[in-house]
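ASSEMBLY PREDICTION REQUEST
Request ID: AP-0331
Submitted by: J.K., bench scientist
Number of chains: two
Total residues: 531
Priority: normal
Notes: Please return the full assembly, not individual chains.
Input sequences:
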Amino acid sequence: MKTGGQSRLKETLAGGGFAVTAECGPPRGANADAIHKKGDLLKGFVDAVNVTDNQTAVVRMSSLAACVHLLEMGIEPVMQMVTRDRNRIALQSDILGAYSLGIRNVLCLSGDHQSLGSQPEAMNVFDIDSVNLLHAVHVMRHEGKDMSGFTLNVAPDMFIGAAENPFADPLAYRVVRLAKKIAAGADFIQTQCVYNLPRFKEWIRLAREEGLTDKIYILAGITPLKSAKMARFMATKVAGMDMPEEIIKRMSAVAGPKATEEGLKIALETIAELRNIPGVRGIHIMAIEAEEKVPELVKAAGLLPHPQR
Amino acid sequence: MIVAKQKPIAELKEMVRPYQKLLVLGCGTCVKTCFAGGEDEVATLASALRLAFGQEGKSIKTEELTVERQCEDAFIQEAAQAVNRNEAVLSLACGAGVQAIARRFGKAVILPGVNTTFIGVLEKPGLFTEECAGCGDCELDTFGGICPVTRCSKRLMNGPCGGSKNGKCEVSPDIECAWQLIIDRLTALGQLDNLKRYIPAKDWRSSLSGGPRRLIREDHVI
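STATUS: Completed
Returned structure:
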């Protein structure tokens, strides 16, 4: 297991490469086979694999453990951390532990509210918010200190990510918040799934005008649709999603396996457009339980080989 | 005010079942204002309990009394005789009132008649909303008078999260996104720059997280 060295994702982005990352949701159980299977599918096609942290507030294998399974396979993980379930003490502790195990990328999130998950009776934590968390990791890395000011024997040299939703309201303020995340120490941004390209372009134009795209690597979110049902579900049930009616119409016009093809086609068109938008430095593919489609998508998008280094 | 909601009659009935003589004790301040525990609610609840037990062929004697504030000893003392001549007290005060009564009357059985819900306001007839979490370190000056600790579902100090849509919270379309409200208000006040500043991790020592709180006023100590 590789425990030394720097983030390869950082090296790729700093070297000017167009990064490709994919998402891997850990299983709802203690068997790591699902991680190995997803890892096998993604290996060689992406720069890093982003491991969710009890996404949608459903109990799953921990992100940290799943990241270690991927590391053992020679895959670089991005460990997601939400502030919903752990206080600052636990979060900092896990950052240190993760770094000691070879994890070099962390994505700081607040997390879906537990009322949307499988155990709505749980108490949330939200001791700190996602911006506080990325600031804490930044200080750990730059000053070698934890949040109490205690000097760490090894400063975790994490490549720090944050999420941003260009489609959430209010639009003008999304850019202010992006600036705040950059100031707090974010190195890269992963966006919500892009279906509404005009809105995404407007957001990144505002970010460019503020000079923000020179200060942070933006990875645009891509989720290939599988069916019209999925498109409608995302339009109505998924928090913070912007699904234009024309996408639903396109998906509704085709049926069965053709729908999957149409979904991939939409994703490829979106990727092609994204690559031409100044400030977009890569894509993050969230193929929810359809990781087998990622290699095909990456290949068809002309984005091989990955990792580039 | 402190907003409370009366417990369901079925739950209260089982709670008071062991007692034949019950004092239903109202509180004339917050819980009266939110229609949970003033004179009217005391009268209605006492007769509802008598009726419910009557249907079972069981009788219960209820005495009704409402004091101005159950959280203040000066008012609590007015209830002393009534407390002593009953087997139990069903207090319709908030949790502070229930505990103040329990503290004052060491040997009396004190039962809670309401669920204390939050510190809030009557937003419009029939709607009470939570406004303050009593965190002990008010920062409303930064946020245009809208509290993110209380009114953002994730207590975000550097919000909003990605779940804010059309001014509503991801938790429920009935919940206003506090951050939308904050941004709108600061925009109207010309103070949106407040939000460009990074708000550091909140110090929760002044909140319940720091353990039960006490406030000592040296100038009032006798």
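REVIEWER COMMENTS: The longest helix of chain A spans residues 257-275.
SIGN-OFF: pending second reviewer
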